[in-house]
Specification:
alpha+beta, 2 domains
Length: 417
Amino acid sequence: MPFAAFEWMIATRYLRARRASGYVSVIAGFSFLGITLGVATLIVVMSVMNGFHKDLLDKIVGINGHIFLQAADRPLTDYDKVAARVTAVPGVKMAIPMVEGSAFASSSFAQGGAGVLVRGIEQADINRLPGIAGTIRSGTLSGFDKAGGVAIGQRLADNLNLRVGDTIKLITGNGAQTPFGVVPRVKSYRVDAIFQIGMAEFDGIFVYMPLALAQSFFNEDRQASVIEVFLDDPEKIDAARDSIQAAVDRPVIMTDWRERNRTFFDALNVERNVMFIILTLIVVVAALNIVSGLIMLVKDKSHDIAILRTMGATRGAIMRVFLITGASIGVAGTLAGFLLGLIVADNVEPIRQFLNRLLHANLFPAELYFLSRLPSVVDPRDVASVVGMTLILSVLATLYPSWRAAKLDPVEALRYE
């Protein structure tokens, strides 16, 4: 009978510390600790990388469209009709005409300035953008079209030392045409609202103003520079492209969020895969510790093995004893690492804040990592793959030492006893 009671009893006794063989238990303890830390670290890192991917995707897609339509051959003066036709396409949530352009922003309350991306949009459309309307920290978007003011990101407001009611100065090169060339246009606008998307890059560059003001500011007379299309499911872009192209009924240049952010998300996926491979080495090293510990245990217990063989224990029974001994370390370490990893992954942001206060340092600067908080999303598939891989490595690590124990000749082991 495989894994009989006496095999479990002997394996359990071998795992306990003894004065003569305490070093074996020390090695077993380090193997257990290595597997625990390896599994926990893998789960936490995979969860944080998943959180990065989800949060960045939600924020990028939440403030930008899924499909972008830009003019080709002739200006996009019929943007209202095009947006209405695209909105009627099944699977399209909304289509928003915008005027986009680069500018330089400054204020009288701060030295220097910052490059910004100005977006002209109608009030009805900005109220439908969850990334803006749902993240207003101060001020209001009420009367956005008629107030003549702008909405800016919290990071930009902090950099220019601006508050609601202050004035921001915008400078663009798309000014008036004169006999001496194009004269830069300088305009000042009141700050009516400050939003905080939670993505440092967006909070530091976006300025929203009414569509008519943006058309005047950038010399885009009664035309839009882009129509951003939002789908019900951003993953179903390929299925919607043909229907949208047919509904547009005019020459346009069509791109989507995958093409605009391909390099960024490809780099994120590469980093995730590389981190998984590197951290897997922790588990491999811990599994090798199991091998070395069992080999030393077999050497130390060769006298006991010989006696068991002379008492009738089969080679299979001896092999199963050491298989249970080594696998128990791996299974216990995997279970402990699984629980520890889930606890840390679910509390990674409070842990970061605690370490920031303890060390008086910023361990997750938003200007480097784009997000203002450390995200974490536990994917059951990732957890299952980590746990399964660790269990397999733990069992494989016991095979060779167990085979060595089963092949031990009792006559040779007891020759000089």
